[in-house]
Amino acid sequence: MLFARRLDRYVMGxxxxxxxIALLALTVIFVLIxxxxxxxxxxxxxxxxxxxxxxxxxxxxxxxLLTLPMAVLVATIISIGELGRQRISIAKAGRHx
Length: 97
What we know:
Blueprint: H1 6-44, H2 49-85, H3 90-94
Helix pairs in contact: 1-2
């Protein structure tokens, strides 16, 4: 499908926007929970905050990969809910003329 129709692009844009926000939010929550669970270990070993920050920065791709399935689910629910609220039929996206 070389050229996406206008409705397809609209639906994909809504989904990707919701996916970006959901992925960022869930990854931040995941990192904050991990940080709170391990802050005593960092303090016991006198780790500098720069080292801890670098550790979490390097772990970001892995953490994003862990939260991606949940982010896709959340983005799907949000984008379908927005389409329903705006009275755009999901069946229209699959109909080809």
